[in-house]
Design goal:
Blueprint (H helix, E strand, L loop, with lengths): L3 H27 L5 H25 L12 H27 L8 H27 L3 H4 L9 H18 L1 H11 L7 H7 L11 H12 L3 H4 L2 E2 L5 E2 L3 E7 L5 E7 L3 H22 L1 H6 L1 H15 L2 H14 L8 E2 L12 E5 L3 E3 L8 H19 L1 E3 L7 E4 L4 E3 L5 E3 L2 H16 L2 H11 L8 H15 L9 H11 L6 H20 L5 H16 L2 H34 L13 H31 L13 H30 L4
Parallel strand pairs: 5-10
Antiparallel strand pairs: 1-3, 2-3, 3-4, 4-6, 7-9, 8-11, 9-10
Helix pairs in contact: 1-2, 1-3, 2-3, 3-24, 4-6, 6-7, 6-8, 7-8, 11-13, 15-20, 15-21, 16-17, 16-21, 17-18, 18-19, 23-24
Amino acid sequence: MPVDLPLGLALSVTALLMILALAAVTRRLLGVRLGVVRTFLAALLAFALAPPMLSPILDSFRGVGTGADPGIGPMWLLFLVVMCVVLIPMVILVLAEALVPPGSVPGPLEAFRSLRGRVRRGRRYSQITRIAIRHGLGPYLRGRGDRPEDRTATVRLATSLRQALDEGGVTFVKLGQVLSTRRDLLPPDFADELGRLQDQVAPAPWEQVEPVLAAELGGPVEEVFAAFDRVPLAAASIAQAYTARLHSGEDVVVKVQRPGIGTVVARDLDIVRRLAATLESRTRWGRSLGLRVLADGFAAAITEELDFRIEAANMAAVAASAGDGAVHPVTYPVPFTGLCTGRVLVMQRLSGRPVTAASPEQGPRLARDLLDCLLRQILVEGVFHADPHPGNLMMLDDGTLGLLDFGSVGRLDASVRAALQRFLFAMNRQDPLGVTDALLEVVPRPEEIDEPALERALGQFMARHLGPGMNSVQMFTDLFRIVSVHGLSVPPEVAAVFRALATLEGTLVRLSPGFDLIGEARAFADRYLAAQVAPGTVKEAVTQELTALLPTLRRLPRRVERIASAAEHGRLALSVRLLADERDRRYLTGLVHQVLLTVLGATAGLMAVLLLGVEGGPRVTSTTTLFQLIGYNLLVICAILVLRVLILVFRRPRDGGAA
């Protein structure tokens, strides 16, 4: 026993070293980056399969080199056996690459986390399903619900949807709030019913909120504030607000994130995405609404809203870029950045009431001010409120607007703003060519696009929506459809503009039914265009352009003279560098490598077939000649080269080219 243990240990260590060497050689011959665990398992499996798979080959060569002069037969046989052993893990890895790509099967830790997440998500799915069935929405989730036949049935279904979203929790309440402004997507009865979610969220008890405040502010509430009203001023889906007074005397609003909301929202957003994908693939109404895109945009917006430091920075940025308050009577609260954290936001208190309480006489003026404010933010200032729904607005005591909740803010650079301005001006002139050119500056131009068809579609769009007395409710939906049909990809910052305008459209209709959005937008364009062509503005623009062009203009005469002189004396040459981009060179090199490997593999296979068919030659066994043995080795080399090409082919969609 004392002798067998060291011997067994030595054999185990030797086997392990052989497996590691086999894994390293296999990885080197394949020429791609493979996972260490995957390569080791392939080598281990090959080490176990090698004896039974190679025994027939060894039996066929039994007696090689047993004579007085063994010759080179044993060397070729040894080379053949080694190559066959190496070939086994290569075949395993190539098959695994084709059938089970890296990342498709999670590791043990990932599998455990995924299983735990699936269990939690399954419980939440079950809860949501029970809520939907309880409110009569089960058939609609399966895509089998009938369309309401009359208004009574429509109102009843809308009420059931609102109650289900309210019972579903914070994320679904927020989803209902967003959908309530999308009258371009939902019937009016649904939008009106979901609009009730804006102000009907039960507040969290103070016993749950106080620990959040103390943890975020670094001390008890009584020490941080001179006074604090523990009765919530308002309760929203993500946070609730309290009134307080600082020791310096300012009245403030303290916005506190609901306890544990981050985990709940992350879990529910995953479910919302999955439900949207399922409904879009299984239901006609889901495809018509584009639920997957809506869910992604909603998830991105609500994730950003969870960090109140982002909201404080957004609030400061919008306020800093705002114009004169007398011209744009919209007030933004000022944040107290020293007291703002990820879950607590302290800001100036604005005194007023909900904007939905505005009288019919005040509605048109407020809607006009809001439209002017947002268009100026988008087209002039470049920093805009991306979620202007009624819950984020209030009417101040002086009758002006207050804009709240800057959790979702968009930003545009100067070039995008200029393109959007040209788009608006061309729309104002109803110029299809100008609108097409401006739109192709706003979105990335695809390699192939039917510009005449796009121009005709935009012309029809303007005729449908910009004519006298036309309704603008479906305007942004139709514009999105045109962009999608013609294969135009909208950048995220421009998509935020379109979403903000679509949300604004629903808000304006709610503030002032029958509001002339097109006419007011044209009036804004006329005012801004007049400012652009004012003598002072034109002079300033010309001065700036000439200042930028002055260095080029100074060098231009000398450069023209040099070109003319070179052409006169026959020395004018044109230098063109092919494959100047490193990525192009890398791609071409990888392609050439694959072609060479394919040619070499085909050549080795062809030579192997020829050598295996040769009858003569020195014999290494009674049935095998040296030429045939060399042919077998070439056949294995051919297989190795072909496997190397195949794994590059299988990896191309993920790696973007050969290694």
